[in-house]
């Protein structure tokens, strides 16, 4: 939550109204992200989102999935907020990492597809999922 608040302060351009609206979006993201052991913010037609969801399901995790493209304007606001939370990808500016999927484990931001896959490959994903209560074995 503190990281999100810091992001709000760094991202918001000006005006008290805009700041309050941004803060409300970040608070909504924080509530959604902490609602289950594993939360995936996704887009229904995104192939990388599909890969992350299939990986988690294959590991035995039943994540809560929010399909942002099916949420209308609120989904676009959430996607914009999530894009601000993710670090810039390699070659930032031109080929930036897409803002979905975004995965939270135990209410904490894990990251996008690259971070999830890196954790899976280096063996740290399963312990994270166990610590969050998403896996029991």
TrEMBL record:
Gene3D superfamilies in UniProt: Glutaredoxin
Record's subcellular location: Cytoplasm
One Pfam family cited in the UniProt record for this chain: Glutaredoxin
CDD domains reported in the protein's UniProt record: GRX_GRXh_1_2_like (cd03419)
Major localization class: cytoplasm
Residue ranges crossing the lipid bilayer per the database entry: none
Cellular component annotations (GO), alphabetically ordered: cytoplasm
Residue ranges constituting the Glutaredoxin domain according to the UniProt record: 38-109
Keywords, in A-Z order: Cytoplasm, Redox-active center
UniProt cross-references to NCBIfam families, sorted A to Z: GlrX-like_plant (TIGR02189)
Family: Belongs to the glutaredoxin family. CC-type subfamily.
The protein's name in its UniProt record: Glutaredoxin domain-containing protein
Species name: Triticum aestivum (Wheat)
């Amino acid at each position: 939550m503190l990281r999100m608040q810091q992001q709000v302060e760094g991202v918001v351009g000006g005006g008290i109204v805009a700041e309050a609206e941004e803060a409300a979006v970040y608070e909504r993201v924080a509530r959604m992200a902490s609602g289950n052991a594993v939360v995936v913010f996704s887009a229904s037609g995104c192939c990388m989102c599909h890969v992350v969801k299939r990986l988690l399901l294959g590991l035995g995790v039943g994540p809560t999935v929010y399909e942002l493209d099916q949420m209308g304007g609120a989904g676009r606001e959430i996607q914009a907020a999530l894009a601000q939370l993710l670090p810039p990808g390699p070659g930032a500016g031109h080929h930036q990492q897409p803002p979905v999927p975004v995965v939270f484990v135990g209410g904490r931001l894990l990251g996008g597809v690259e971070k999830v896959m890196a954790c899976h490959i280096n063996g740290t994903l399963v312990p994270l999922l166990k610590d969050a209560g998403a896996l029991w074995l």
